[in-house]
Amino acid sequence: MVSMERKEFPLLYVHQHARGIVGWGAHRMAGQECQMYGIKHALLVTTGLKGTGIIEEVEGVLKKAGVTVTVFTGVTSNPKDQEVAAGTGAYLAAGCDGIVTVGGGSSHDAGKAIRIMVTNNGSDTKLRDFAAVLNPHYTTRIPTYKPVNIPHVAINTTTGTGADCTAFAIINDEELVYKLILVVPGVAPSVGISEPAFMRLQPPQLVAWTGMDAFCHAMEPFVGRLNLPVSHGTSLRAIKLLSENLRQGYANPKNDTAIENLIWAQFIASMSYNMGGGMGMVHGLAHMVSVIKGLHHGHANALMMLPVERFNAIACPERFKEIGEAMGLDVRYMNPVHATDKTLEEIERLRNDVGIPAVSLREYNFTEADIEHTVKWASNDLSMEANPRDMSHEHIRTIMRSCM
Fold it and tell me: Mind listing the pLDDT tens digit for each residue in 268-323?
């Protein structure tokens, strides 16, 4: 039967966004926040941050507030399901009653996933049972989930994730070689804390990768087909801030003004997608590149951004024209198609300026078998739902081959 529904998406979902604390010395609020949420024994989840002194600093703040701390450093970039299971075991063995995460997206997402597992069957929980996919659509399963009510204080040390405030957790399923997008009620952290003093300790490469990740977080909801007005203004403001500050932050991570502006860019970009704008095929394909070859999530997004958006451009040239204006281009009197060309050129220039040139995926030993694995799994990735242009398996295959 032919559908008579006028709207492609009759129901739109605005997800929970965490409270935020931003500013110099913000990390000193972590102890007070733990007290407010009743955390007496925290599992501090981190990738380690060796040599920075950050973990020791945060531990001191928590202990001064009377919070017992068990440190779990078993998380790596692109957190894995086995790491989350180990963290869950550490949480239960220590008798913790809350989570504190310190780091970037990997630490925060691992902390969220640990909370999902503890809320359910502990270390026996299968995270793939909570994966948000398109078929069957994730919204049909959410009512069966137990809401997560374990408090979580997320302290951010990078300028691009947004994971300290969002209602999603991204975890590698090592057996399936697939990124699980976990969307469970209550999984957003209780509060996200952004500390500029920690972020200026980032190496330039990390500023670039996380900055381009934030750019995707702003761009994809703006051009996407979910078309939520709540995301439009935040997307354009984030793009403007990133265009004006990412080069400076990359060139000198101790440029305090640039770092402050990048913090706000990543914060409001996370609102764009988290509050209903969704993502798109850049994230859908980058998820697979990242999980197959271990690339940093932001790096993978930067590599996939232009091939995907050149494919998408004909679906929404007027939106790309607005992005160009936000980036400072004078495209007012150009038609949207020509303005889109200029916008994509400017995005490429920004990416190159921060040390991320276009590189063949063959340099990462990507193979034809990897492309077929990507086609199989990316087509059911939740990110694909909001992509502005319809895509088939053959479209995905063609885009991936163009990157080889």
Answer: 999 998 887 889 999 999 999 999 999 999 999 999 999 999 999 999 999 999 99
Alpha-carbon dihedral 146, 148, 149, 153, rounded to 10 degrees: 180
What's the token pair of residue 164?
């300290």
pTM exceeds 0.85: yes
Sequence-distant (≥ 6) Cβ neighbours of residue 337 within 8 angstroms: 313, 314, 317
Write out the residue range of the structural domain in which residue 193 sits: 19-200
The residue with tokens 């394909």 is 285
DSSP-assigned states of every residue in 202-247: S-HHHHHHHHHHHHHHHHHHHHSTT--HHHHHHHHHHHHHHHHHHH
Looking at the structure, tell me whether residues 174 and 319 fall in a common domain.
Answer: no
Q: How many domains does the chain have?
A: 2
Domain boundary among 170, 200, 230: 200
Rounded to the nearest angstrom, the gap between the alpha carbon of residue 71 and the centroid of all alpha carbons in its chain is 24
Decide if 369 is inside a domain.
yes
User: What confidence tens digit (pLDDT) does each residue in 166-216 have?
Assistant: 999 999 999 999 999 999 999 999 999 999 999 999 999 999 999 999 999
**Residue 9 lies inside a defined structural domain of this protein:** no
Among residues 182, 200, 218, which one ends one of the domains?
A: 200
- Distance between CA atoms of residues 332 and 33, nearest Å: 47
Q: Where are the alpha helices (DSSP H) in 65-155?
A: 81-94, 105-119
Note the Cα 99 to chain centre separation in Å: 19
With both helix axes pointing from N to C terminus, report the angle between 281-293 and 204-223 in degrees, rounded to the nearest 10: 140
Domain CATH code at residue 304: 1.20.1090.10
CA distances from 198 to 40, 205, 253, 263 (A): 25, 16, 10, 11
What is the rounded CA–CA span in Å between residue 108 and residue 166? 10
